[in-house]
Amino acid sequence: MLILGIESSCDETGVALYDDTRGLLAHALHSQIDMHIAYGGVVPELASRDHIQRVIPLTQKVLADAQCTLEDVDALAVTTGPGLAGALLVGTAYAHALAFALNKPIIGVHHLEGHLLSPMLSNNPPQFPFIALLVSGGHTQLMRVDGVGQYQLLGETLDDAAGEAFDKTAKVLGLNYPGGPAVSKLAELGTPKKYTFGRPMLHSGNLDFSFAGLKTAVLTQAKRTQHTNADGVLSEQDKADIALAFVDATVDVLSKKALQALKQTGLMSIVVAGGVGANVQLRSRLDTLAAQHGFSVHYPELHLCTDNGAMIAFAGSLAIQQNPELLQQHDTFTVLPRCPLRNTI
Ligand code: KG4
Ligand code: ZN
């Protein structure tokens, strides 16, 4: 069965074709980062307008790359939430219009479900059950995943998401949006242990997180260092030292809580997904812990860590295999800008 997947929940338009026997046939992505950089973050109205311009050419590109036509598509899968309402509406309205015109079935996919199943598209796919560490710009969650549609929330952030903390740290240090990759790169030049920030909620006794205090620690340290410098500005080395202290604290909390989740559930396999899953320091720490404690760790391919259409087409395909009745429901549509990931099947 050939699925056309469409993702437009935030600042990336993604379209992909996934076939349940042949695998991922094609995927195409347009990132709006260059457009939003001037504003230091995503401008929702601009995001929606850009999705409108991109989604048709991207669909044409994946069809051409896979040497398919729209007639070959058996069903559509589209992100219905969570995300920016206007941005979600563009992809959803487009996908439903296509489905209606082609008389093909369509199903809605939860964005986080796309992320957490995306490592199953890699060369080293995890087996159920596993722990998922979902770390994106809007979410930081630990989940127990027993199968497609069988998700149990074990813990989540009480305030900022990990990606949000990266983005806010980047702003304080004068780096461009999105901050994650920039902070990570700068941290590589930092002096180890020059500064040390607290590890929020590390000993809370549960699997919840908090990153808002870490962002304040970054701001406080930046101001303090600035004041002690004779010229009143942060040097590049100061910025790198603060970036490293932030990355160390964030990675420490994420990886140790992930280990706690494994111990608590007795599972031996963890999947890391979402934009922050591309972070090299986090990957390296988890790989070390995995070697020490004998569990396996799985990541999506690097280019599938951030938002993309492939994970939506793939999640849609798995959901349909699990529950073919999903193909019957396609006469109305809605988007859900805020919606927890529950057992979706
Ligand atoms: O999953 P994603 O593309 O979009 C959401 O669903 O939020 O994640 C975007 C987030 C941003 O906050 C970005 O700064 C962060 O992921 N990110 C990273 C890295 N690449 C992206 N954070 C740390 N290190 C990275 N290499
Ligand atoms: Zn995402």
Description:
- Helices cover 42% and strands 19% of the residues.
- It has 345 residues and is an alpha/beta fold.
- It has two domains: 2-117 and 304-328, Nucleotidyltransferase, domain 5 (2-Layer Sandwich); 127-299, ATPase, nucleotide binding domain (Nucleotidyltransferase, domain 5, 2-Layer Sandwich), CATH 3.30.420.
- The chain has a five-stranded mixed beta sheet with strand order 3-2-1-4-5, with helices on both faces. A five-stranded mixed beta sheet has the order 8-7-6-9-10, sandwiched between helices.
- α2 runs parallel beside α3, α4 crosses α10 (310-322) and α5 packs parallel to α7.
- The model has no long low-confidence stretch (mean pLDDT 95).
- It binds 5'-O-[(R)-(carboxyoxy)(hydroxy)phosphoryl]adenosine (KG4) and zinc ion (ZN).
- 5'-O-[(R)-(carboxyoxy)(hydroxy)phosphoryl]adenosine binds at residues 10, 136-138, 163, 166-167, 178-181, 184, 274-276, 278-279, 306-307.
- The site of zinc ion has 5 residues, from α4.
